């Protein structure tokens, strides 16, 4: 049986990089996408000695033609993607009214538009083969509004809703869709988002990227519809279903606020 091919976006560091290591360990060939070609080359050099094929593509998926370019390139090369991991995404800290427009639209372009378009392009070939897996990486942010990161939280709520809906549509097709929801994780995300000094990271703590990635890997390979990494994150996510929305929003803001 030929080895399957896994496409991972945002694969140059953090959870994406750790997922790439797990898939390589189990002899899956890789297509790794991120903006930094140099970082991707380092990852490829590390993983190729494990006997897997590693193709790297330096691409900014927030640019409108990028998802189509990526799909068309792999089609031309005859590369069928068996597992799609939509991991690329970013957040930005600050009040919505003063946040730069490029930060707002960039989050929507990458976290929502690119993820949706990649899913739409790679899903039909999977359905034709009656085999495939999709993992969309959301966040525990998907379960509540997020003052001071309003757009990021909203984009992750979209990912959760979208993924659960298509998972239902795919029942019996041989293809699964998994929404993976990590909580705070030690990656470059907090530095990029400007949340390194938030209560969430400074006082409440974050999980390791290795542990989070393993949870995600197990979830997608088992075909679970929704998976939350960490028991404490699961409890917090579930609690938002029963608490008054005003309280949920206030707590969410308190967690996001910066501390000395």
From TrEMBL:
- Alphabetized CDD domains for the sequence: SDR_c (cd05233)
Identify the residues that the record assigns to the Ketoreductase domain, covering every copy. Answer: 4-187
Name the UniProt key words of this record, in alphabetical order: Oxidoreductase
Task: State the source organism's domain of life.
Answer: Bacteria
Q: Which Gene3D superfamilies match?
A: NAD(P)-binding Rossmann-like Domain
**Keyword Oxidoreductase among UniProt keywords:** yes
A single GO CC term for this protein reads: membrane
GO molecular function terms listed in the Swiss-Prot or TrEMBL record = oxidoreductase activity
What family does the Swiss-Prot or TrEMBL record give for this protein? Belongs to the short-chain dehydrogenases/reductases (SDR) family.
This chain belongs to which protein, by name? Answer: Short-chain dehydrogenase
